Amino acid sequence: MKTSLHIIIGILTGVLISTLIWLAATPPRGEAIKLVPPPTQVPITVYVTGAVAKPGLYHLRQDSRMNDAIEAAGGFLADADKSNINLAAPVKDGDEIHVPELLPGLSIGGTGLLVNINTATEAELENLPGIGPTLAQRIIDYRTQYGFFKTIDALKNVPGIGDATYAEVKNLITVGP
After folding, report:
1. β-sheet bridge partners, residue 49
2. d(CA 44, CA 164)
3. Does this model's pTM top 0.70?
4. Per-residue model confidence as pLDDT tens digits over 60-112
5. How many Cα atoms occupy the beta-carbon half-sphere of 76 within 13 Å?
6. Across the chain, which distance is largest between two alpha carbons, in Å?
């Protein structure tokens, strides 16, 4: 009886070892997973000229927009004509981005755009005839203190803006959107 038990244990051990050897020798099923490094983004080069703080060549990410290029060049100058610049437009390698300047003596209003005195920056207000840095700051201070202008006539409430200055700007300003 002991002999038959030894034979059975021997047979089972042999089958187990044979199965392990067969499993180890069998090639794996399916294809091996290949690890590929993520693609390295090659920067694009754009040339920014005109009314920006630092014109020149700039290297940007491939998914960059016009706004990224303008910011890389230090932003718009005060006399930049932004009316035809689409800041959301994508840029591509080799693009030249030219930001034109307003013509000397030409206000934003002279380009056909009205200056919103409720939202205009100091630089935009200074483009209006008869409005220099001091009056532009007074306009901003006034709307900060008293809220938005309800009509363009309310501009005459700003200290230093009289009938003559108002007459120069009334057709160039708005309080609406």
Report:
1. 98
2. 51
3. no
4. 999 999 999 999 999 988 888 887 889 999 999 999 999 988 754 444 454 45
5. 17
6. 127
